[in-house]
Write a structure and sequence with these properties.
373 residues; alpha/beta; Non-ribosomal Peptide Synthetase Peptidyl Carrier Protein, Chain A; 14 helices; eight-stranded parallel barrel; TIM Barrel
Length: 373
């Protein structure tokens, strides 16, 4: 029996891995997929860089042979460019799903009118979404966005309505503004408001402050959303997807791993990165993951510091052998990980807020170098 298309009735994933720069590459996606069903999305890819054939970007578009479905996130500011990029990717790669980044709050993205700046320009947004859906043909296109630029410029309900009219397959809302960055708390009531605003058959996902499986259940219960997007909560915790699977199916949650189990996972992750990138880059890519894997575990600062400076896989193995075998204290289960900075003043193109119906592209060349965020 042939499964219905992704995001169609009967095939709406409950859990989606959020695109994260320098994190959600093929090795990390593979590790997460082992623990649970869901949709595992690539790092953010610049549409213009795809069109230009940028070598670094094209490496980021690659998937492991066993990845299915293949999900890729694009960032764009120009309707013509996003259409051309999607067409090129469909011709050269087997892509099963495109997500459009309308939520990145990073300065180098928003100052060119991309990411969380784009939804303020309603007509331009409409053109970008229509171009993406048309170019994708039968491949589903979804959007991920924030509440707005700041508390004076909320855009999420308009974004939802425009996306629904354009034929977008699903919506994902992070309950913070771009100005908040990752500070404060995500406002889940905005997810509920979006769910009430758009058609019932259009899947809506909630994102923000989901640190463990109980948070995911609470998000769905409080907002009526169809599923959750997991970002910082899975950093150093690919096993979280097993907990989410169990929670959504009503099964008992697996035991949280002790450091002896975490060490095995760390070694495997590092080896996967080395196989993908080569030893020099792969080891250095893994350094940041070491702090996330051990976040909350009482292992001492000295070994944490050494792990953050590993030079080889053998060096990593030597240090992991020195880890004490301890459990994660209950009070540390929801400790925030990843970015916590903010608030900020959002960088925008000059005059960007003057007219929300102006549909001119602020900087057609502006997204050429921001693959990965």
């Amino acid at each position: 029996m042939i499964a219905p298309p992704l995001f169609a009735a009967g095939n709406v994933p409950k859990v989606v891995l959020a695109p994260m720069a320098g994190v959600t590459n093929a090795p990390f996606r593979r590790l997460c997929r082992r623990y649970g069903g869901g949709l595992y999305v690539s790092e953010m890819i610049s549409a213009r860089a795809v069109v230009e054939g940028n070598e670094k970007t094209m490496k980021l578009t690659q998937f492991a042979d066993d990845e299915s479905p293949r999900s890729l996130q694009l960032a764009a500011v120009d309707p013509a460019v996003v259409g051309e990029a999607i067409g090129k990717l469909i011709d050269t790669e087997r892509i099963d799903h495109f997500d459009l980044n309308l939520g990145c709050p990073v300065r180098k993205v928003t100052r060119n009118g991309g990411g969380s700046a784009l939804p303020y320009k309603r007509k331009l947004l409409e053109r970008v979404l229509n171009a993406a859906v048309k170019a994708a043909g039968g491949v589903p296109v979804t959007v991920k966005f924030r509440v707005g630029i700041d508390d004076d410029h909320h855009t999420y309900l308009d974004t939802g309505r425009i996306a629904a009219d354009a034929g977008i397959a699903a919506l994902a809302l992070h309950g913070r503004t771009a100005a908040q960055l990752y500070s404060g708390s995500a406002d889940w009531s905005t997810v509920a408001a979006l769910r009430e605003t758009v058609p019932a058959e259009l899947p809506v996902y909630g994102n923000g402050d989901i640190w463990e499986a109980s948070d995911a259940l609470a998000m769905v219960d409080q907002t009526g959303c169809d599923g959750v997007v997991i970002g910082r909560g899975c950093l150093g915790r690919p096993w979280l997807f097993a907990h989410l699977d169990a929670a959504f199916t009503g099964e008992p949650l697996p035991t949280i791993p002790r450091t002896s189990e975490v060490a095995l996972l760390m070694a495997e992750h590092a080896k996967e990165l080395v196989a993908w990138f080569g030893e020099f880059k792969g080891v250095r890519e893994f350094r940041k993951h070491t702090a996330w894997y051990l976040k909350g575990y009482p292992v001492g600062g000295e070994i944490r510091g050494k792990l953050g400076q590993i030079e080889s896989l053998d060096h990593l193995d030597d240090l992991l052998a020195q880890l004490p075998d301890v459990r994660l204290p209950d009070e540390n289960r929801r400790v925030a990980r990843g970015h916590t900075r903010g608030p900020q003043v959002v960088a925008l193109p000059q005059g960007w807020l003057d007219d929300p119906d102006d549909d001119l592209v602020a900087n057609p060349e502006g997204d050429s170098a921001v693959s990965g965020g």
